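Archive transcription. Copying these from loose printouts into the bound notebook so they stop getting lost. Printout 1 of 2:
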Amino acid sequence: MSTVHLIDHPLVQHKLTLMRQKDLSTHGFRRLLKELAMLMAYEVTRDMPTQPIEIETPLETTTGQVIDGKKLVFVAILRAGLGILDGMLDVVPGARVGHVGLYRDPRTLTAVEYYFKLPADMGERDVIVVDPMLATGHSAIAAVERVKEVGPRSIKFVCLLACPEGIAALQGAHPDVPIFTAAIDRQLDAHGYILPGLGDAGDRIFGTK
């Protein structure tokens, strides 16, 4: 099974708790999500490869390590994944961006694709798929499946909240893809929402409900 990395840094947990509150404004939710995504990016990219370069400091020549951000691709699952994207790009501004458009069929809860666009030459790139919630797992499974078709070097999945059902589903479908999350909540309700959760992330990001 794929590994599950729980990012339990105190700052991450503090901001996530504030985001869960139902009376938080759209602006406040969006701001906290960006800050939280930046913090999570540090953990998710911890094993990012670096290469040495020679530079001139004000005093002498030395060798330092740099990343090749262009080889990293953040793939946002539309629409809610866009909320994580800004914070991640603040940390790795040179990263490329891809999009997978999916919506959840309200009757079957399965993911239906309506858009797919990734950078070219994916064979040498590392992909981080982002979506705030890992609930039923259908959207994550479908997105990772599509990304795998272009053959990237590696894939990780990042979310704010997960639940046991979603983790089991994603691990069962893609046991090679590590999962990074800020919390593992109790369960899903009958409508496929995470409990205790934080509501519909997309609606709270964009103020559409």
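Printout 2 of 2:
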Amino acid sequence: MTQTPSQILDRVWVLEMVRVTEAAAIAAAKLVGRGNEKEADSAAVEAMRDALNKLPFNGTVVIGEGERDEAPMLYIGEKVGAGEGPDIDIALDPLEGTTLTAKASPNALAVLAIAEKGNLLNAPDVYMDKLAIGPGYEEGLVDLDFGPAENVRRFAAAKGVKPEEVMVCVLDRPRHEALIRELREVGCGIKLIPDGDVAGVMAVSDPDETNVDMYMGSGGAPEGVLAAAALRCIGGQIQGRLIFRNEDEKERARRVGITDFNRKYSLTELAAGDVIFAATGVTDGALLEGVKRKPGGWFTTESLVMRASSGTVRYVYGEHRRKAL
């Protein structure tokens, strides 16, 4: 699903976004396995913020670390950039997988997406029910309203296989007990992941490589927007519906202009227009290799960067030889 190239998101921004995620990943990698989630996250946040503030644009964080009273940096609504140039909306997670980093577990990433102003859903920091499949299937094949078992059966029929041959990725959380039970009853496989649902959703885009056909379950709404931005570039479908547990969470939504609390968001309602998505591995994972420390105090990184308008996916290997990084 390619789009007309943006007049604002010039191709130069592709590499600039990689530099931003590299900075966050290197900062977080220095704390891999140290058991301190907050310290690792804080290091990634500060590094990403510093990198963004060097760029010549007027950036607004629409998906960030939380609201201003909860997050001292990279909060929703924060202005970043050098204060000149185009108006850009930014969705980011400086460290997707704080627990993974603290435990030196696989699949921790530094991720961000940018788009022209108004093209990324300004989602509150609440849960979102998500359903995603890869490219090549008709729109509407699966739907949050159908239920897990029906979605597996419909997907299996379209793929030309039995439900037993479908693999569904689900976050391993107590809140998913009923979902997992229903999926077990329909007979499909379930890949349970401890964290990292951006990477979990992205896995559906290449089932031959990842062995993941579908993604189901609830996770953070900010991660849902980031995952949608990635799928805009590499192909696939996603639906999301915000989950509100109390009136305070509904008030958060009202503050960012959301009043329909039952709305079901499609891919292009989560991330529209031309989008650039970048990710750098912090720890080794199925998607990217993690940061490696080399003798002499330098580092190597592996990143990917994608653009919706061109449909291009680039893998970028970096060597960072300055000790100051």
